[in-house]
């Protein structure tokens, strides 16, 4: 069992992150509006619980999450928090006209976002501009960790190979320079596919990857090659979306989300089976989800989102809640998690 205030270093960098981090997508009004006061109270609750690592991105609310998080962190003592944000999309004003329906990859899951439309651009110049734009939205003089956002087939589709070439010749070169000159402490990529991480590892020396939803209590495909490679090469994993968009909190209820959309029948059935084992051992499903991913030696931190102080405080309690070893054994016996998956 991890403690919230424990820290792990990101790869070979000097950046250390708390074992529980804070994912800032909800503060971009993911699915529903969060007002400014509640957003501030939520971040305050997370930091008071021992969290020191906060993640955001230009995509989240099309700049709204960065603006809010910057306002909440500004004025706090230097070194009291670690902040990551992302490059790969430039935000362009849309004139406040009624926006077209955006795809999930473009950010079509935010309510009341700022009047900008995100555009993919992994070039060197766009990466540098994105970094500077984020500093201005945040109102901060430094970003600790910079991640290339959504350079995977999940978001790029048929454009994945051209995007990867732009990353190799542009974004990666920009991040290497920013790290060498001390403008950032570490760099990596934030994606939804571990296969993309492995492709990126062939291109450069990344400190970390923010992998969203692809190593969880529900799915462990990353165990075969990606996570062992991270351990061998000293690359850290920041585990995003540990609840697979919410279903590992709510359970298999009507309307439960998986990968940002209503869960299909096979996912609902598997989650129901996992929850039945959890109930039999008096284990909250969400606690199992958080602690499972932290047991892998490649995973430095897990960053669930929160949209209220109660959720932020609950996440910290779930990370530190005792879970009996018999629970993990039962999951393996019933074939509900991989037999070779590390467990607490």
From TrEMBL:
One of its GO terms (cellular component) is cytosol. One of its GO terms (molecular function) is oxidoreductase activity. Residues 19-331 form the NADP-dependent oxidoreductase domain. SUPFAM superfamilies: NAD(P)-linked oxidoreductase (SSF51430). InterPro entries: AKR, NAD(P)_OxRdtase_dom_sf, NADP_OxRdtase_dom. Pfam families: Aldo_ket_red. PANTHER family: GH17980P-RELATED. This is Aldo/keto reductase. It comes from Methylobrevis albus.
């Amino acid at each position: 069992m991890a403690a919230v205030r424990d820290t792990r270093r990101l790869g070979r960098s000097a950046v250390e992150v708390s074992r529980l981090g804070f994912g800032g997508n909800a503060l971009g009004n993911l699915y529903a509006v969060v007002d400014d006061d509640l957003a501030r109270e939520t971040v305050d609750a997370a930091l008071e619980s021992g969290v020191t690592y906060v993640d955001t991105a230009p995509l989240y609310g099309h700049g709204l999450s960065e603006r809010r998080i910057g306002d909440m962190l500004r004025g706090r003592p230097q070194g009291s928090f670690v902040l990551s944000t992302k490059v790969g999309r430039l935000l362009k004003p849309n004139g406040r006209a009624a926006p077209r329906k955006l795809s999930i990859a473009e950010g079509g899951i935010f309510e009341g976002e700022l009047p900008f439309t995100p555009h993919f651009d992994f070039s060197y110049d766009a990466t540098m501009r994105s970094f500077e734009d984020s500093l201005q939205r945040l109102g901060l003089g430094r970003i600790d960790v910079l991640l290339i956002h959504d350079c995977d087939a999940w978001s790029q589709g048929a454009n994945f190979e051209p995007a990867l070439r732009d990353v190799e010749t542009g974004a990666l070169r920009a991040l290497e320079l920013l790290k060498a000159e001390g403008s950032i402490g570490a760099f990596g990529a934030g994606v939804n596919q571990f296969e993309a991480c492995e492709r990126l590892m062939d291109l450069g020396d990344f400190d970390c990857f923010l992998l969203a939803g692809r190593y969880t209590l529900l799915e462990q495909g990353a165990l075969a090659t990606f996570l062992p490679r991270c351990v061998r090469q000293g690359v850290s994993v920041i585990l995003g979306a540990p609840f697979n968009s919410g279903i590992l909190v709510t359970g298999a209820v009507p309307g439960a989300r998986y990968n940002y959309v209503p869960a299909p029948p096979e996912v609902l059935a598997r989650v129901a089976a996992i929850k039945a084992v959890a109930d039999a051992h008096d284990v909250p499903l969400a606690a199992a989800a958080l602690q499972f991913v932290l047991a892998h030696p490649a995973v430095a931190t897990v960053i669930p989102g929160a949209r209220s102080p109660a959720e932020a405080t609950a996440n910290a309690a779930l990370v530190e809640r005792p879970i009996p070893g018999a629970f993990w054994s039962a999951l393996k016996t019933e074939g509900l998690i991989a037999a070779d998956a590390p467990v607490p």
